[in-house]
Amino acid sequence: MRRFTLQFILCLLPLCQTWAGVLPAPVGGALRAAGIPQDAVAVYVQQVDKPRPLIAQNASQPLNPASTMKLVTTYAGLELLGPAYTWKTEVYAGGPVSEGVLEGDLILKGYGDPAFTLEKFWDMLRALRQSGLREIKGNLVLDRGWFESVAHDPGAFDDEPWRAYNATPDALLVNFNATRFTFRGDVPSGKVLIAADPELPQLRMLNQIELRQVPCADWKDRIGYEVQQSGEAVTLTFSGNYSVACGEKSLELSVFNDAAYVYSLFRQLWQEQGGVLRGTLKQGEVPAGAKRLVEMTSPPLADTIRLVNKFSNNVMARQILLTMGAEKISVPGNADKGAQAVRDWLQARKLDFPELVIENGAGLSRLERISAQHMGELLLAAWKSPVMPELMSSLPVVAVDGTLQKRLKDSPVAGQAHLKSGSLDGVRAMAGYLLDRNGRRWVVVFIVNHARAADARAAQDALLEWLYARD
User: Fold this and answer.
1) Is 233 helix (H, G, I), strand (E, B) or coil?
2) What is residue 409's predicted lDDT score, i.e. its pLDDT?
3) Is residue 4 one of the residues assigned to a domain?
4) Which of 12, 171, 255, 256 is the most exposed place for a label (fewest CB within 10 A)?
5) What are the residues whose beta carbons fall under 8 Å from the beta carbon of 422, sequence distance 6 or more?
6) CA dist list (Å): 281 to 88, 138, 140, 232, 249
7) What is the Cα–Cα distance from 418 to 260, expressed in whole angstroms?
């Protein structure tokens, strides 16, 4: 009886009321000021060493988590593949090599390396030249069969087919299939100078941007571009205006299809290193008896997910999902197999998330769903996992680095929270860990699905500051 009376008294206190679903006053006030109703908000807060949540507001409601879905993908990847997992990229000779001349095709086989950058691609070609190969009399053959080839419209999500964040996964993804365009105002000439990296010969740029003496704000919105493809050739017309006050800014676009990009990049870099390629581009498989000339190995998965989560790289997250599908279900990997691998992993860990929907594992989706409670339970499980240090260190640190570098700079929360944020039209989310002023570690999940979700940042920040300062 005394125990029951004590519990009853405790449930009259603000702690129990908060746990029952009443948001802290600063959070509720910020939501009202933003015009966001609380039924469009899900919040889940729990101390990592406590059995029950402190706050569970609409926590069981399935919501679009935006890029916080990358937490599901990267944590699953760490446990299913292992933090030391590496990807390889292989180069084979499809014929005999004599005195530096290959009498046949050169085959590149990819296994889905998410971070096969321009520098690493150059290193591969340098290793190939150092092996003694100088001339390729056959074709460049790309073996991309580790992942399933799926028809994909890169503009289907947001009608931005050329933006690099919409790049399609590929078993032989090089440099994220991206071209970086750098803009700089040149006052003496009165022009905007544009540089492309890599500057492939198939790319033609038309510069119609005006240079202006105005404040630098929303510079991307003031630049327009039109892409025209004709075979392997791409004409890119830039228009609009650019402020000299912006200094140097860059925009990454994906204007070539994957195979053409790899082929063009190979031919250009191979020639720069004194190599000769007689043939053209072909798709195929490594033939039986082909001799492996070079094998490149990626950094370990633990390093790779830092790029995924710190900078919210969508195509890298998608590569990891497809890799889990290929490794744990069957080759070729695809998104459905990757999602099944994640569900099997959750079931093995006795985590039942029936509402979970994984479309691509990156959060760049209108279909993906998870509840705030289950995102919180996932983070609680991760806290007890052997791979916790790798996952946690991959998350942006508030006010310090990654996508949260500029957030809460002048707040006591600065440097005290490892969080993944997510944003889409109508979605704002954050999920991760907070260390409060008393040294207690909390799991924090805050998801908003509403037309005014873009105005939810103040409410999310208010929750972090309230939780940090709480006695």
Assistant:
1) strand
2) 97
3) no
4) 12
5) 65, 66, 67, 68, 69, 70, 312, 363, 428, 429, 430, 431
6) 21, 10, 5, 11, 34
7) 39
* Residue 353 one-letter amino acid: F
Q: Which residues pair with 194 in a beta bridge?
A: 183
Instruction: Retrieve residue 322's tokens.
Output: 């497809």
For 243, list phi and psi in degrees, rounded to 5. Answer: -90, 140
The closest alpha carbon to 341, from 68, 33, 16, 76, belongs to 76
Six-digit token string for 91:
């180069």
Q: Which residues are 294's β-sheet partners?
A: 91
- Whether residues 277 and 311 share a domain: the answer is no
| pLDDT of 18 | 44
Residues forming a β-bridge with 97: 102
- For residues 206 and 445, give the distance between their C-alpha atoms in angstroms, rounded to a whole number: 46
**Listing from the earlier edge strand, what are the strands of the sheet with 55-57?**
55-57, 41-47, 441-449, 427-435, 417-424
Kindly state the DSSP code that residue 436 receives in the 8-state scheme. Answer: -
Q: Which two tokens stand for residue 138?
A: 């056959």
Q: What is the CATH number of the domain that holds 398?
A: 3.40.710.10
450 and 347 co-located in one domain = yes
- The neighbour count for residue 13, using CB atoms within 10 Å, is 10
Largest Cα separation within the chain, whole Å, is 92
Backbone angles phi, psi at 92, to 5 degrees: -120, 150
Both 342 and 204 in one domain: the answer is: no
Token pair for 13: 């206190």
Give pLDDT, residue 153. 87
Q: Is the pTM of this model over 0.90?
A: yes
Q: Where are the beta strands (DSSP E) in 20-100?
A: 41-47, 55-57, 62-63, 88-93, 97-98
What the block records as the tokens of 470 is: 């709480």
Q: Is the pLDDT of residue 11 over 50?
A: no
Count the Cβ atoms, other than its own, within 10 Å of residue 376. Answer: 24
- pLDDT tens per residue across span 312-343: 999 999 999 999 999 999 999 999 999 999 99
Q: Give the rounded percent of residues in the chain with a pLDDT score beyond 90.
A: 93
pLDDT tens, residue by residue, 418-427: 999 999 999 9
- Separation of CA 427 from chain center: 17
Q: What is the pLDDT of residue 10?
A: 40
For residue 25, give every residue at least 6 positions away whose Cβ sits within 8 Å of its Cβ, in sequence order, or none.
none
Cα–Cα distance, 108 to 143 (Å, whole number)? 6
Positive or negative, the CA dihedral 52, 58, 60, 65 is negative
Asked if residue 161 is part of any domain, the answer here is: no
Confidence of residue 21 (pLDDT cuts 50, 70, 90): low
Residues facing residue 102 across a β-bridge: 97, 136
3-state secondary structure at position 108: strand
